[in-house]
Write the structure tokens for this entry.
Amino acid sequence: MTDKATLEQELAYVKDLPGFSRSNPQYFKDPMIDRLLEIVMLLGGEFWAMRDRLMVLEHLLATHGRVTPDLIETFKPDENFTKANADLRKNFIHQVFGNLYPQETEQKGNHFSWVTDGPKAKG
């Protein structure tokens, strides 16, 4: 059996999952919810790309005192920058997309507590 045939056989179960159709996947009863979720995902990606670029700009201004397109495009983050960026990205994903699934600690009627209370401490 070829690698492709083996892979197709191993992944055959996905044909029974909601949204399998590649041309127009639908996961929810109302297709508009799927479209809205797609919009949220796209906007989240665009927002993060701009936020990441802004962090690079701020870092370059703080360390070099100036910013040029070449400095932005050739920027190589150090370990501290990478860690801070990863932490911010993790918090962003949790805040924006965490509401797509039920939280064990979530209190009924308090779905947007992160807006008013800030990030919850882990521990």
Summary: The two ends are 49 Å apart (CA to CA).
